[in-house]
Protein backbone atom coordinates (compact mmCIF):
# COMPACT_ATOMS: atom_id res chain seq x y z
CA UNK A 1 0.00 0.00 0.00
CA UNK A 2 2.86 2.41 0.81
CA UNK A 3 4.59 1.59 -2.46
CA UNK A 4 1.38 2.27 -4.37
CA UNK A 5 0.89 5.58 -2.52
CA UNK A 6 4.44 6.66 -3.37
CA UNK A 7 3.87 5.70 -6.97
CA UNK A 8 0.71 7.84 -7.08
CA UNK A 9 2.63 10.71 -5.53
CA UNK A 10 5.31 10.45 -8.21
CA UNK A 11 2.62 10.36 -10.91
CA UNK A 12 1.05 13.54 -9.54
CA UNK A 13 4.46 15.24 -9.44
CA UNK A 14 5.02 14.09 -13.02
CA UNK A 15 1.74 15.67 -14.17
CA UNK A 16 2.59 19.00 -12.55
CA UNK A 17 6.11 18.99 -13.97
CA UNK A 18 4.97 17.95 -17.44
CA UNK A 19 2.35 20.71 -17.58
CA UNK A 20 4.90 23.32 -16.41
CA UNK A 21 7.41 22.22 -19.06
CA UNK A 22 4.69 22.16 -21.72
CA UNK A 23 3.63 25.67 -20.76
CA UNK A 24 7.18 26.95 -21.01
CA UNK A 25 8.20 25.30 -24.30
CA UNK A 26 4.87 25.37 -26.16
CA UNK A 27 4.41 27.90 -28.96
CA UNK A 28 3.20 31.28 -27.79
CA UNK A 29 -0.20 30.73 -29.36
CA UNK A 30 -0.83 27.54 -27.30
CA UNK A 31 1.21 28.43 -24.18
CA UNK A 32 -1.84 29.38 -22.11
CA UNK A 33 -3.53 26.00 -22.55
CA UNK A 34 -1.09 23.93 -20.39
CA UNK A 35 -1.24 26.55 -17.64
CA UNK A 36 -5.04 26.51 -17.60
CA UNK A 37 -5.00 22.71 -17.49
CA UNK A 38 -2.50 22.87 -14.60
CA UNK A 39 -4.75 25.21 -12.61
CA UNK A 40 -7.74 22.93 -13.15
CA UNK A 41 -5.69 19.87 -12.15
CA UNK A 42 -4.38 21.45 -8.95
CA UNK A 43 -7.88 22.59 -7.98
CA UNK A 44 -9.52 19.19 -8.50
CA UNK A 45 -6.61 17.19 -7.07
CA UNK A 46 -6.13 19.01 -3.79
CA UNK A 47 -9.60 20.35 -2.97
CA UNK A 48 -10.82 16.88 -1.87
CA UNK A 49 -14.51 15.99 -2.04
CA UNK A 50 -16.01 13.92 -4.84
CA UNK A 51 -13.76 11.92 -7.12
CA UNK A 52 -16.18 11.90 -10.07
CA UNK A 53 -14.62 14.88 -11.96
CA UNK A 54 -11.14 13.34 -11.65
CA UNK A 55 -11.87 10.47 -14.04
CA UNK A 56 -12.55 12.73 -17.07
CA UNK A 57 -9.64 14.96 -15.98
CA UNK A 58 -7.16 12.06 -15.96
CA UNK A 59 -8.53 10.87 -19.31
CA UNK A 60 -8.11 14.34 -20.78
CA UNK A 61 -4.54 14.61 -19.45
CA UNK A 62 -3.62 11.21 -20.89
CA UNK A 63 -4.76 12.43 -24.30
CA UNK A 64 -3.54 16.04 -24.13
CA UNK A 65 0.00 15.62 -22.73
CA UNK A 66 1.20 13.75 -25.85
CA UNK A 67 -0.24 16.60 -27.96
CA UNK A 68 1.66 19.19 -25.89
CA UNK A 69 5.00 17.40 -26.32
CA UNK A 70 4.55 16.27 -29.91
CA UNK A 71 6.34 19.36 -31.34
CA UNK A 72 9.28 18.66 -29.01
CA UNK A 73 9.75 14.87 -29.22
CA UNK A 74 7.96 13.87 -32.41
CA UNK A 75 4.75 12.06 -33.31
CA UNK A 76 5.66 8.50 -32.39
CA UNK A 77 7.46 9.26 -29.12
CA UNK A 78 4.79 11.60 -27.68
CA UNK A 79 2.28 8.83 -26.71
CA UNK A 80 4.76 7.68 -24.04
CA UNK A 81 3.84 10.77 -22.00
CA UNK A 82 0.38 9.27 -21.38
CA UNK A 83 1.71 6.12 -19.67
CA UNK A 84 2.25 7.67 -16.19
CA UNK A 85 -1.40 8.74 -16.26
CA UNK A 86 -2.62 5.11 -16.23
CA UNK A 87 -2.09 4.62 -12.43
CA UNK A 88 -3.88 7.91 -11.74
CA UNK A 89 -6.78 6.88 -13.96
CA UNK A 90 -6.91 3.48 -12.26
CA UNK A 91 -6.97 5.11 -8.82
CA UNK A 92 -9.63 7.59 -9.93
CA UNK A 93 -11.88 4.80 -11.19
CA UNK A 94 -11.54 2.91 -7.91
CA UNK A 95 -12.36 5.99 -5.86
CA UNK A 96 -15.33 6.91 -8.00
CA UNK A 97 -16.69 3.36 -7.79
CA UNK A 98 -16.99 3.78 -4.01
CA UNK A 99 -19.43 6.67 -4.42
CA UNK A 100 -21.46 5.79 -7.50
CA UNK A 101 -25.04 4.59 -7.16
CA UNK A 102 -25.72 0.88 -7.59
CA UNK A 103 -28.59 -0.03 -9.89
CA UNK A 104 -30.91 -3.03 -9.61
CA UNK A 105 -32.78 -2.31 -12.83
CA UNK A 106 -31.20 -5.06 -14.95
CA UNK A 107 -30.63 -8.70 -14.07
CA UNK A 108 -27.29 -10.46 -14.61
CA UNK A 109 -24.00 -8.87 -15.63
CA UNK A 110 -24.13 -5.50 -17.36
CA UNK A 111 -21.81 -2.54 -18.07
CA UNK A 112 -22.31 0.49 -15.89
CA UNK A 113 -23.01 4.00 -17.10
CA UNK A 114 -19.39 4.94 -16.39
CA UNK A 115 -18.13 2.08 -18.57
CA UNK A 116 -20.46 3.06 -21.40
CA UNK A 117 -19.52 6.76 -21.34
CA UNK A 118 -15.78 6.13 -21.03
CA UNK A 119 -15.75 3.57 -23.86
CA UNK A 120 -17.86 5.76 -26.12
CA UNK A 121 -15.66 8.81 -25.47
CA UNK A 122 -12.46 6.94 -26.32
CA UNK A 123 -13.97 5.45 -29.48
CA UNK A 124 -15.14 8.89 -30.67
CA UNK A 125 -11.70 10.39 -30.00
CA UNK A 126 -10.02 7.50 -31.86
CA UNK A 127 -12.29 7.96 -34.88
CA UNK A 128 -11.73 11.72 -34.97
CA UNK A 129 -7.95 11.37 -34.62
CA UNK A 130 -7.89 8.80 -37.43
CA UNK A 131 -9.95 11.09 -39.64
CA UNK A 132 -7.57 13.99 -38.95
CA UNK A 133 -4.52 11.71 -39.30
CA UNK A 134 -3.32 12.72 -35.83
CA UNK A 135 -1.32 9.53 -35.26
CA UNK A 136 0.08 10.54 -31.87
CA UNK A 137 -3.39 11.13 -30.47
CA UNK A 138 -4.59 7.89 -32.03
CA UNK A 139 -1.81 5.89 -30.34
CA UNK A 140 -2.50 7.59 -26.99
CA UNK A 141 -6.16 6.75 -27.35
CA UNK A 142 -5.19 3.16 -28.19
CA UNK A 143 -3.20 2.93 -24.93
CA UNK A 144 -6.24 3.96 -22.89
CA UNK A 145 -8.52 1.62 -24.82
CA UNK A 146 -6.07 -1.24 -24.22
CA UNK A 147 -6.08 -0.49 -20.50
CA UNK A 148 -9.89 -0.41 -20.45
CA UNK A 149 -10.16 -3.68 -22.39
CA UNK A 150 -7.65 -5.36 -20.07
CA UNK A 151 -9.58 -4.32 -16.94
CA UNK A 152 -12.95 -5.40 -18.37
CA UNK A 153 -11.45 -8.75 -19.45
CA UNK A 154 -10.09 -9.39 -15.95
CA UNK A 155 -13.45 -8.52 -14.39
CA UNK A 156 -15.48 -10.71 -16.77
CA UNK A 157 -13.13 -13.64 -16.27
CA UNK A 158 -13.26 -13.49 -12.48
CA UNK A 159 -16.85 -12.35 -11.99
CA UNK A 160 -19.39 -15.22 -11.90
CA UNK A 161 -23.13 -14.77 -12.26
CA UNK A 162 -23.44 -15.07 -8.48
CA UNK A 163 -20.29 -13.41 -7.13
CA UNK A 164 -21.35 -13.52 -3.47
CA UNK A 165 -22.87 -16.37 -1.48
CA UNK A 166 -24.02 -16.76 2.11
CA UNK A 167 -23.81 -19.45 4.75
CA UNK A 168 -27.50 -20.23 5.21
CA UNK A 169 -28.48 -20.96 8.82
CA UNK A 170 -32.06 -21.99 9.62
CA UNK A 171 -33.89 -20.36 12.53
CA UNK A 172 -37.05 -21.45 14.35
CA UNK A 173 -38.97 -18.24 14.95
CA UNK A 174 -42.41 -17.54 16.35
CA UNK A 175 -44.37 -15.46 13.84
CA UNK A 176 -43.97 -11.78 14.61
CA UNK A 177 -41.07 -12.20 17.07
CA UNK A 178 -38.15 -9.84 16.47
CA UNK A 179 -34.95 -11.79 15.86
CA UNK A 180 -31.37 -10.76 15.20
CA UNK A 181 -28.97 -13.00 13.29
CA UNK A 182 -25.49 -12.79 11.81
CA UNK A 183 -25.18 -13.65 8.11
CA UNK A 184 -21.72 -14.61 6.79
CA UNK A 185 -21.14 -13.50 3.19
CA UNK A 186 -18.60 -15.32 1.01
CA UNK A 187 -16.82 -13.46 -1.81
CA UNK A 188 -16.60 -15.95 -4.68
CA UNK A 189 -15.05 -13.54 -7.17
CA UNK A 190 -11.93 -12.59 -5.25
CA UNK A 191 -12.46 -8.95 -6.29
CA UNK A 192 -12.69 -6.26 -3.65
CA UNK A 193 -15.92 -4.95 -5.09
CA UNK A 194 -18.95 -3.33 -3.55
CA UNK A 195 -22.08 -5.16 -2.54
CA UNK A 196 -25.50 -3.60 -2.11
CA UNK A 197 -28.30 -5.55 -0.41
CA UNK A 198 -31.96 -4.57 -0.63
CA UNK A 199 -34.67 -6.51 1.16
CA UNK A 200 -38.00 -6.93 -0.67
CA UNK A 201 -39.77 -7.51 2.66
CA UNK A 202 -40.84 -4.83 5.12
CA UNK A 203 -40.15 -7.18 8.06
CA UNK A 204 -36.59 -8.13 7.03
CA UNK A 205 -33.71 -5.65 7.31
CA UNK A 206 -29.97 -5.95 6.77
CA UNK A 207 -27.25 -3.71 8.20
CA UNK A 208 -25.14 -2.47 6.58
CA UNK A 209 -26.92 -2.39 3.25
CA UNK A 210 -23.75 -1.41 1.35
CA UNK A 211 -20.27 -2.69 2.03
CA UNK A 212 -16.91 -3.32 0.37
CA UNK A 213 -15.83 -6.97 0.21
CA UNK A 214 -12.17 -6.43 1.03
CA UNK A 215 -11.92 -9.86 2.68
CA UNK A 216 -12.94 -13.36 1.52
CA UNK A 217 -15.81 -13.33 4.04
CA UNK A 218 -17.70 -10.67 5.96
CA UNK A 219 -20.63 -10.66 8.36
CA UNK A 220 -23.75 -8.53 8.22
CA UNK A 221 -26.61 -8.35 10.70
CA UNK A 222 -30.14 -9.37 9.77
CA UNK A 223 -33.18 -8.20 11.75
CA UNK A 224 -36.48 -9.87 11.02
CA UNK A 225 -39.94 -10.47 12.43
CA UNK A 226 -41.50 -12.88 9.92
CA UNK A 227 -45.27 -13.11 9.39
CA UNK A 228 -47.13 -16.37 9.47
CA UNK A 229 -46.82 -16.74 5.69
CA UNK A 230 -43.10 -15.94 5.67
CA UNK A 231 -40.85 -17.70 3.12
CA UNK A 232 -38.78 -20.77 3.99
CA UNK A 233 -35.64 -19.01 2.74
CA UNK A 234 -35.31 -15.24 2.78
CA UNK A 235 -33.94 -13.97 -0.53
CA UNK A 236 -32.76 -10.39 -1.00
CA UNK A 237 -31.86 -8.39 -4.09
CA UNK A 238 -28.09 -7.95 -4.41
CA UNK A 239 -25.87 -5.85 -6.66
CA UNK A 240 -22.14 -6.42 -6.96
CA UNK A 241 -19.92 -3.75 -8.53
CA UNK A 242 -16.32 -4.46 -9.53
CA UNK A 243 -13.55 -2.33 -7.93
CA UNK A 244 -13.33 -0.06 -11.01
CA UNK A 245 -17.06 0.51 -11.29
CA UNK A 246 -17.25 -0.80 -14.85
CA UNK A 247 -19.27 -4.03 -14.56
CA UNK A 248 -22.21 -4.70 -12.25
CA UNK A 249 -24.00 -7.95 -11.46
CA UNK A 250 -27.57 -8.12 -10.18
CA UNK A 251 -28.58 -11.38 -8.54
CA UNK A 252 -30.68 -12.89 -5.78
CA UNK A 253 -28.94 -13.81 -2.55
CA UNK A 254 -30.34 -16.36 -0.10
CA UNK A 255 -29.56 -15.20 3.42
CA UNK A 256 -31.33 -17.14 6.19
CA UNK A 257 -33.68 -20.09 6.43
CA UNK A 258 -36.87 -19.76 8.45
CA UNK A 259 -39.16 -22.19 10.16
CA UNK A 260 -42.04 -19.95 11.21
CA UNK A 261 -43.99 -21.22 14.20
CA UNK A 262 -47.58 -19.89 14.36
CA UNK A 263 -48.22 -17.65 17.35
CA UNK A 264 -51.34 -19.64 18.17
CA UNK A 265 -49.45 -22.92 18.33
CA UNK A 266 -46.83 -21.41 20.62
CA UNK A 267 -49.47 -19.84 22.89
CA UNK A 268 -51.43 -23.10 23.00
CA UNK A 269 -48.28 -24.98 24.02
CA UNK A 270 -47.66 -22.47 26.83
CA UNK A 271 -51.26 -22.73 28.02
CA UNK A 272 -51.32 -26.54 28.05
CA UNK A 273 -47.92 -26.59 29.71
CA UNK A 274 -49.26 -24.31 32.42
CA UNK A 275 -52.31 -26.54 32.94
CA UNK A 276 -50.06 -29.58 33.29
CA UNK A 277 -47.65 -28.18 35.85
CA UNK A 278 -50.17 -26.20 37.93
CA UNK A 279 -52.50 -27.83 40.41
CA UNK A 280 -56.22 -27.12 40.22
CA UNK A 281 -57.25 -24.54 42.78
CA UNK A 282 -59.37 -25.54 45.72
CA UNK A 283 -61.67 -22.59 45.18
CA UNK A 284 -64.85 -23.49 43.31
CA UNK A 285 -65.95 -21.54 40.30
CA UNK A 286 -67.63 -18.32 41.23
CA UNK A 287 -71.30 -18.33 40.34
CA UNK A 288 -71.90 -14.69 41.08
CA UNK A 289 -70.14 -11.59 42.23
CA UNK A 290 -69.97 -10.57 45.83
CA UNK A 291 -73.06 -9.06 47.42
CA UNK A 292 -73.73 -5.45 46.67
CA UNK A 293 -73.25 -4.48 50.30
CA UNK A 294 -69.68 -5.75 50.17
CA UNK A 295 -68.76 -3.60 47.16
CA UNK A 296 -68.02 0.09 47.50
CA UNK A 297 -70.17 2.30 45.30
CA UNK A 298 -67.63 5.01 44.69
CA UNK A 299 -66.12 5.39 41.19
CA UNK A 300 -62.55 4.94 42.36
CA UNK A 301 -59.81 6.11 44.67
CA UNK A 302 -56.64 5.47 42.68
CA UNK A 303 -55.65 8.32 40.33
CA UNK A 304 -55.51 7.10 36.73
CA UNK A 305 -55.02 10.13 34.47
CA UNK A 306 -56.46 13.30 32.94
CA UNK A 307 -58.85 13.82 30.04
CA UNK A 308 -60.95 16.58 28.48
CA UNK A 309 -64.23 17.54 30.10
CA UNK A 310 -67.35 15.89 28.69
CA UNK A 311 -71.00 16.80 29.31
CA UNK A 312 -72.22 15.08 32.44
CA UNK A 313 -68.89 15.14 34.34
CA UNK A 314 -69.11 16.29 37.92
CA UNK A 315 -67.54 19.63 38.83
CA UNK A 316 -65.79 17.90 41.78
CA UNK A 317 -63.40 16.04 39.44
CA UNK A 318 -62.26 19.12 37.50
CA UNK A 319 -58.49 19.66 37.74
CA UNK A 320 -58.37 23.46 38.00
CA UNK A 321 -54.59 23.68 37.87
CA UNK A 322 -54.31 21.96 34.49
CA UNK A 323 -57.48 23.69 33.27
CA UNK A 324 -55.85 27.10 33.72
CA UNK A 325 -52.57 25.88 32.25
CA UNK A 326 -54.06 24.25 29.12
CA UNK A 327 -56.89 26.77 28.62
CA UNK A 328 -59.47 23.98 28.46
CA UNK A 329 -61.51 22.14 31.06
CA UNK A 330 -59.66 19.02 32.24
CA UNK A 331 -61.03 16.40 34.65
CA UNK A 332 -59.36 13.70 36.71
CA UNK A 333 -59.98 10.00 36.18
CA UNK A 334 -59.74 7.44 38.96
CA UNK A 335 -59.25 3.70 38.80
CA UNK A 336 -61.89 1.63 40.54
CA UNK A 337 -60.16 -0.66 43.02
CA UNK A 338 -63.37 -2.61 43.67
CA UNK A 339 -63.16 -4.50 40.34
CA UNK A 340 -63.53 -8.22 41.00
CA UNK A 341 -62.38 -9.91 37.76
CA UNK A 342 -61.92 -9.68 34.02
CA UNK A 343 -64.24 -10.10 31.06
CA UNK A 344 -62.68 -11.23 27.79
CA UNK A 345 -64.78 -9.87 24.92
CA UNK A 346 -63.69 -11.63 21.72
CA UNK A 347 -64.68 -11.15 18.11
CA UNK A 348 -64.13 -14.56 16.49
CA UNK A 349 -64.41 -13.24 12.91
CA UNK A 350 -61.19 -12.38 11.08
CA UNK A 351 -60.33 -11.43 7.50
CA UNK A 352 -57.21 -13.55 6.83
CA UNK A 353 -55.01 -16.27 8.24
CA UNK A 354 -52.49 -13.80 9.63
CA UNK A 355 -55.18 -12.09 11.69
CA UNK A 356 -56.54 -15.48 12.77
CA UNK A 357 -53.13 -16.38 14.17
CA UNK A 358 -52.78 -13.03 15.95
CA UNK A 359 -56.26 -13.26 17.47
CA UNK A 360 -55.76 -16.82 18.72
CA UNK A 361 -52.37 -15.86 20.19
CA UNK A 362 -53.73 -12.76 21.94
CA UNK A 363 -56.73 -14.67 23.27
CA UNK A 364 -54.71 -17.55 24.73
CA UNK A 365 -51.98 -15.30 26.13
CA UNK A 366 -54.61 -13.09 27.80
CA UNK A 367 -56.24 -16.16 29.36
CA UNK A 368 -52.85 -17.49 30.42
CA UNK A 369 -51.89 -14.18 32.03
CA UNK A 370 -55.15 -14.03 33.98
CA UNK A 371 -54.67 -17.64 35.10
CA UNK A 372 -51.13 -16.97 36.32
CA UNK A 373 -52.35 -13.94 38.26
CA UNK A 374 -55.23 -16.06 39.67
CA UNK A 375 -57.83 -13.57 38.42
CA UNK A 376 -61.32 -15.00 37.85
CA UNK A 377 -62.49 -14.37 34.30
CA UNK A 378 -65.66 -14.43 32.24
CA UNK A 379 -65.77 -15.01 28.49
CA UNK A 380 -68.00 -13.35 25.90
CA UNK A 381 -67.45 -14.39 22.28
CA UNK A 382 -69.28 -13.56 19.07
CA UNK A 383 -68.79 -13.63 15.32
CA UNK A 384 -70.34 -11.72 12.44
CA UNK A 385 -73.64 -13.62 12.73
CA UNK A 386 -74.39 -14.51 16.35
CA UNK A 387 -73.26 -14.79 19.96
CA UNK A 388 -70.99 -17.81 20.37
CA UNK A 389 -70.41 -17.96 24.12
CA UNK A 390 -71.19 -16.06 27.30
CA UNK A 391 -70.07 -17.34 30.70
CA UNK A 392 -70.18 -16.26 34.30
CA UNK A 393 -67.00 -15.61 36.25
CA UNK A 394 -64.94 -18.79 36.12
CA UNK A 395 -62.02 -20.15 38.03
CA UNK A 396 -58.83 -19.09 36.17
CA UNK A 397 -58.06 -22.66 35.12
CA UNK A 398 -61.57 -23.25 33.86
CA UNK A 399 -61.46 -19.93 32.01
CA UNK A 400 -58.17 -20.97 30.36
CA UNK A 401 -59.68 -24.26 29.23
CA UNK A 402 -62.64 -22.36 27.78
CA UNK A 403 -60.24 -20.04 25.97
CA UNK A 404 -58.49 -23.01 24.35
CA UNK A 405 -61.87 -24.20 23.08
CA UNK A 406 -62.89 -20.78 21.75
CA UNK A 407 -59.62 -20.40 19.84
CA UNK A 408 -60.76 -23.24 17.57
CA UNK A 409 -63.96 -21.39 16.61
CA UNK A 410 -62.30 -18.47 14.82
CA UNK A 411 -63.77 -18.07 11.34
CA UNK A 412 -62.88 -16.14 8.20
CA UNK A 413 -65.11 -13.54 6.55
CA UNK A 414 -64.52 -11.19 3.59
CA UNK A 415 -62.94 -7.94 4.63
CA UNK A 416 -65.70 -5.30 4.71
CA UNK A 417 -65.34 -2.19 2.60
CA UNK A 418 -64.83 0.88 4.74
CA UNK A 419 -64.89 4.41 3.35
CA UNK A 420 -64.95 6.37 6.62
CA UNK A 421 -63.03 6.13 9.84
CA UNK A 422 -64.71 4.77 12.94
CA UNK A 423 -66.41 7.75 14.63
CA UNK A 424 -65.48 9.04 18.05
CA UNK A 425 -68.81 8.63 19.85
CA UNK A 426 -67.77 10.71 22.86
CA UNK A 427 -66.82 13.64 20.65
CA UNK A 428 -70.01 13.19 18.63
CA UNK A 429 -72.16 13.36 21.79
CA UNK A 430 -70.23 16.38 23.02
CA UNK A 431 -70.66 18.22 19.69
CA UNK A 432 -74.39 17.54 19.69
CA UNK A 433 -74.72 18.84 23.25
CA UNK A 434 -72.78 22.05 22.50
CA UNK A 435 -74.57 22.77 19.22
CA UNK A 436 -78.00 22.36 20.80
CA UNK A 437 -77.16 25.04 23.34
CA UNK A 438 -76.41 27.52 20.55
CA UNK A 439 -79.03 30.00 19.39
CA UNK A 440 -77.78 29.97 15.79
CA UNK A 441 -80.05 28.28 13.25
CA UNK A 442 -77.11 26.75 11.40
CA UNK A 443 -75.80 25.20 14.64
CA UNK A 444 -79.21 23.69 15.38
CA UNK A 445 -79.41 22.20 11.87
CA UNK A 446 -75.93 20.77 12.24
CA UNK A 447 -76.90 19.27 15.60
CA UNK A 448 -79.85 17.56 13.90
CA UNK A 449 -77.53 16.05 11.27
CA UNK A 450 -75.14 14.81 13.95
CA UNK A 451 -78.10 13.36 15.85
CA UNK A 452 -79.03 11.40 12.72
CA UNK A 453 -75.51 9.99 12.67
CA UNK A 454 -75.74 9.10 16.35
CA UNK A 455 -79.10 7.38 15.88
CA UNK A 456 -77.72 5.39 12.94
CA UNK A 457 -74.80 4.25 15.09
CA UNK A 458 -77.22 3.29 17.84
CA UNK A 459 -79.34 1.17 15.50
CA UNK A 460 -76.25 -0.45 13.99
CA UNK A 461 -74.89 -1.25 17.44
CA UNK A 462 -78.09 -2.98 18.53
CA UNK A 463 -78.18 -4.98 15.30
CA UNK A 464 -74.61 -6.22 15.78
CA UNK A 465 -73.98 -9.41 17.83
CA UNK A 466 -71.45 -7.61 20.02
CA UNK A 467 -74.17 -5.66 21.85
CA UNK A 468 -76.24 -8.72 22.76
CA UNK A 469 -73.13 -10.68 23.73
CA UNK A 470 -71.85 -7.90 25.96
CA UNK A 471 -75.22 -7.42 27.61
CA UNK A 472 -75.56 -11.15 28.32
CA UNK A 473 -72.05 -11.37 29.74
CA UNK A 474 -72.47 -8.36 32.05
CA UNK A 475 -75.79 -9.74 33.25
CA UNK A 476 -74.16 -13.09 34.05
CA UNK A 477 -71.28 -11.46 35.88
CA UNK A 478 -73.42 -9.01 37.85
CA UNK A 479 -70.47 -7.07 39.09
CA UNK A 480 -67.65 -4.70 38.22
CA UNK A 481 -65.04 -6.21 35.92
CA UNK A 482 -62.21 -5.11 33.71
CA UNK A 483 -63.21 -5.59 30.07
CA UNK A 484 -60.46 -6.82 27.73
CA UNK A 485 -61.50 -6.36 24.08
CA UNK A 486 -59.92 -8.56 21.39
CA UNK A 487 -61.24 -7.66 17.96
CA UNK A 488 -59.92 -7.01 14.47
CA UNK A 489 -62.46 -4.16 14.14
CA UNK A 490 -64.07 -5.54 10.99
CA UNK A 491 -67.86 -6.01 11.10
CA UNK A 492 -68.09 -4.69 14.67
CA UNK A 493 -66.02 -1.50 14.46
CA UNK A 494 -68.88 1.02 14.84
CA UNK A 495 -70.82 -1.17 17.29
CA UNK A 496 -67.78 -1.56 19.52
CA UNK A 497 -67.10 2.17 19.47
CA UNK A 498 -70.71 2.83 20.50
CA UNK A 499 -70.66 0.14 23.22
CA UNK A 500 -67.36 1.36 24.62
CA UNK A 501 -68.77 4.84 24.96
CA UNK A 502 -71.71 3.51 26.99
CA UNK A 503 -69.48 1.33 29.15
CA UNK A 504 -67.13 4.24 29.84
CA UNK A 505 -70.07 6.33 31.03
CA UNK A 506 -71.02 3.49 33.37
CA UNK A 507 -67.51 3.45 34.86
CA UNK A 508 -66.12 0.29 33.30
CA UNK A 509 -62.39 0.02 32.72
CA UNK A 510 -61.59 -1.23 29.18
CA UNK A 511 -58.44 -2.37 27.45
CA UNK A 512 -58.23 -2.74 23.65
CA UNK A 513 -55.72 -5.37 22.52
CA UNK A 514 -54.01 -4.44 19.26
CA UNK A 515 -54.12 -7.22 16.65
CA UNK A 516 -52.28 -5.35 13.92
CA UNK A 517 -55.40 -4.81 11.79
CA UNK A 518 -57.13 -1.87 13.37
CA UNK A 519 -57.02 1.63 12.02
CA UNK A 520 -56.73 3.21 15.45
CA UNK A 521 -54.28 2.77 18.24
CA UNK A 522 -55.16 0.69 21.29
CA UNK A 523 -56.73 2.81 23.96
CA UNK A 524 -57.44 2.42 27.62
CA UNK A 525 -60.44 3.99 29.25
Q: How does this model look, in words?
A:
This protein is of the alpha/beta class and 525 residues long. The protein has 4 domains: 150 residues, no CATH class; 98 residues, Sandwich (Immunoglobulin-like); 36 residues, no CATH class; 174 residues, 3-Layer(aba) Sandwich (Rossmann fold). Helix content is 44%, strand content 21%. A hairpin with a 4-residue loop joins β15 and β16.
Write the layout of secondary structure elements.
Elements: H1 2-25, H2 32-46, H3 54-73, H4 85-97, E1 108-111, H5 113-131, H6 135-158, E2 164-166, E3 169-174, E4 179-187, E5 194-198, E6 204-207, E7 210-212, E8 217-224, E9 233-241, E10 247-261, H7 263-277, E11 302-308, H8 320-326, E12 330-335, E13 341-347, E14 349-350, H9 353-372, E15 377-382, E16 387-390, H10 396-406, E17 411-412, H11 425-436, H12 441-463, H13 465-477, E18 481-486, H14 493-505, E19 509-513
Parallel strand pairs: 3-10, 13-15, 13-18, 14-17, 18-19
Antiparallel strand pairs: 1-10, 2-4, 4-8, 5-7, 5-9, 6-8, 9-10, 11-12, 15-16
Helix pairs in contact: 1-2, 1-3, 1-4, 2-3, 3-4, 3-6, 5-6, 7-9, 9-10, 11-12, 12-14
Provide the β-strand percentage band: 15-25%
Q: Return the structural class.
A: alpha/beta
For the termini, the CA-CA separation is 67 Å
Q: Number of helix segments?
A: 14
Spans where pLDDT lies below 50 across 5 or more residues: 280-298, 517-525
Q: Could you name the CATH class of the largest domain? A: Alpha Beta
Q: Choose one word for the global shape.
A: elongated
Q: How big is the Rg?
A: 38 Å
CATH architecture of the largest domain, by name, is: 3-Layer(aba) Sandwich
Q: What's the main sheet like? A: 6 strands, mixed
Number of strands: 19
Mean pLDDT: 84
Helicity, as a percent range: 40-55%
The CATH topology of the largest domain: Rossmann fold
Number of domains: 4
Amino acid sequence: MRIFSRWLFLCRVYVIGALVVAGIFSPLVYAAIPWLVLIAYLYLEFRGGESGPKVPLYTFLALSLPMFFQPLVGTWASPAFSLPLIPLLDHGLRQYALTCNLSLARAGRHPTRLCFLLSLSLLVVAMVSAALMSWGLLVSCGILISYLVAVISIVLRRLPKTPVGAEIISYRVVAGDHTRAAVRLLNRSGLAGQLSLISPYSWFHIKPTRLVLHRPSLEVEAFFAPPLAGPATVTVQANFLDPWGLIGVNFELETVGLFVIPRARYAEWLARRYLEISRPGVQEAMSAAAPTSQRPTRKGTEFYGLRSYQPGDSARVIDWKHTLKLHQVVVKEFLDTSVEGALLLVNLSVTDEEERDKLAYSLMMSGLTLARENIPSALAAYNDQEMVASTRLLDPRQALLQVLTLSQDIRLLPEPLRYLEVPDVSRLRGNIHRLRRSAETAAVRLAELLQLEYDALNRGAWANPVTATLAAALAAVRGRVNIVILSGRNHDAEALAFSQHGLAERGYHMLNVELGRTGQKPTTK
